[in-house]
Specification:
The chain has 291 residues and is of the alpha+beta class. It is built from 3 helices and 11 strands.
Length: 291
């Protein structure tokens, strides 16, 4: 392990006095895009937390007399996420309550940069709990034929041990997240990306995916509302039609009753007329039954 002790009876350098990186440009954009995607996801997942920081291509100074290490990405827990308007120029352990990053991430370079050897040893010797290596070149270069696309190591008794993966994901209990990979679209580019996952293996969505899902849900809700409104209108139309039929049946019944009443009245009037005629004939001495 590297000796991380230093004298505090001295003026320690500030971030303004130290280089913010090793000034070596990345040799492919994935070395920036992948860590930045993980950072943007954490900003959503841990939106209500202010005890973490994820740096991208930033110098990490572990000792005031030593040069910085510069991972493609790193995560520190227990530090302030917001350090003011200017933010961090670099990560100084002595300015971060002596907290070292819990995770370092390297994306294997097109021009190999000893991610499996020197950087492996550096992070191990510095006591960084997790070291993740993502290799997008697997299958393209023969030298990596015995490597996994994503390898996550955990420090156990001061030595890195490769953690098992399940469905291309590795669970990191200290941060209650899994790191894994799958195909997806980010910044208009469809390819394989690294993502964070929950304990059930569900991938955390990007802001764009959340917006698309929200719009899809809103559209579905509008369609359901329209269907419900049409169903209600249809039910109201059927109820109206049933009321009209009931009214027609009632009117038909009333008409039939009126006709029957009219017939009874006509029959009654005819009988009364015949009765009056018979009475007149009897008054004249004529028996109507004999006529």
């Amino acid at each position: 392990m590297v000796n991380l002790t230093y004298s505090t009876n001295r003026i320690l350098p500030t971030a303004e006095e130290l280089p913010s990186s090793d000034e070596k440009p990345v040799d492919n954009q994935l070395q920036n895009d992948i860590p930045n995607l993980l950072l943007s996801l954490l900003a959503l997942i841990w939106a209500n937390r202010d005890d973490w920081y994820f740096g991208v291509d930033m110098g990490v100074y572990y000792h005031p007399d030593e040069p910085a290490i510069v991972p493609d990405g790193f995560l520190a827990i227990g530090v302030k996420r917001d350090t003011g308007e200017k933010g961090r120029l670099s990560y100084l352990r002595w300015a971060e309550n002596n907290i070292m990053p819990i995770l370092s991430l390297e994306v294997v370079s097109e021009t190999y940069n000893s991610e499996y050897e020197k950087k492996f040893e550096d992070y191990q010797n510095l006591g960084i709990l997790y070291y993740a290596i993502y290799n997008p070149l697997i299958g393209r270069k023969g030298r990596f034929k015995n490597r996994q696309k994503l390898e996550v190591y955990r420090l156990i008794e001061e030595k890195y041990e490769l953690l098992p993966s399940e469905n291309n994901r590795v669970w990191l209990p200290e941060i209650a997240l899994a790191l894994g990979y799958e195909n997806g679209e980010h910044i208009g580019w469809y390819r394989e990306w690294l993502y964070w996952y929950d304990a059930s293996g569900n991938r955390y969505l990007t802001a764009n995916e959340r917006a698309i899902n929200a719009e899809a849900i809103a559209t579905q809700e509008r369609l359901i509302a329209n269907q419900e409104r049409l169903a209600k209108q249809e039910a109201e139309a059927i109820a109206l039609q049933e009321r009209l039929i009931a009214n027609q049946e009632r009117l038909a019944k009333q008409e039939a009753e009126a006709i029957a009443l009219q017939e009874r009245l006509a029959k009654q009037a005819a009988e009364e007329k015949n009765q009056r005629l018979a009475e007149r004939l009897r008054a004249l001495g004529i028996n109507p039954d004999e006529i």
